[in-house]
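To make this tangible, we now present a fold written out as tokens:
***
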Amino acid sequence: MRRLLNGLYNSAAALAALCMVGLLIMVMLSIVSRLLGFNVRGTDAYAGYLMAGAGFLALAHTLKMGEHIRVTLILNSVHGRWRRALEIWCLALAALLSCLLAFYSCRLAWQSLQFNDISTGVDATPLWLPQLTMALGTVVFAIAFVDDFILELLGQRQPLRSGELLRNE
């Protein structure tokens, strides 16, 4: 099961990386087309869709690598049972909120598909397509938080140390 979940997080990160490559291609296409005197319509919109997709798809992998911003001021001042209780409470709340975000992201994409909602730009893209990356990213993010919550309850969660403390100024 652990290999499957880690594969899911890594696959979402790989899709985020592909979105970043697509974003680079859209930006380069826009620059080159302007230099050569023609216009490729919709590149700005597609660049925005790809940027949003990259951000949402990378959420779970970033969480599992310990690179999300955490305010540990209170957590570091508490030790023993109280620290674990606070950690469980925080993870339970984060899991709940991420599940709600995933539910409403999926619902938004589904409603856009049902209503044939299209973008208002010149590209006229069906909005469910870019919203699908948001929905997928938030679902994987919710799975990651539920995974961390269950691991913490079982006492098997290994807190990852971010390199952020090494990069202070």
Notes: Residues 2-35 form the longest helix (34 residues). The mean pLDDT is 90.
